[in-house]
Amino acid sequence: MNNETIGTNAGLVWNALSNKNGQTVKELKKTTKIKTDKVLFSAIGWLAREGKVVLEDVEDDVKVTLL
Question: Residue 49: CB partners within 8 Å, gap ≥ 6?
Fold first, then answer.
């Protein structure tokens, strides 16, 4: 997995959140059709590093919200 792939997937996550903000990882995986947790968490990490999302523990999942 390279930076271009991670950036592309980060765009998918950002677009999904811009349509429906405040999704769990489970919801994002379904919405974006990203198949593996590793790829999804890399994309979320990219957005978190850029200060574009906030992560919150909810029960047995993580909620991702755009800032």
Answer: none
pLDDT confidence of residue 62? 96
State pTM to two decimals. Answer: 0.93
Residue-wise pLDDT for 45-58, tens only, equals 999 999 999 999 99
Percent of the chain with pLDDT over 70: 100
For 3-66, CATH gives: 1.10.10.10
Instruction: Write down the domain spans for the chain.
Output: 3-66
Torsion of CA 15, 19, 24, 25, to 10 degrees: -20
User: And the tokens for 60?
Assistant: 């047995």
3-class DSSP assignment, residue 54: strand
Phi, psi of 59 (to 5 degrees): 45, -115
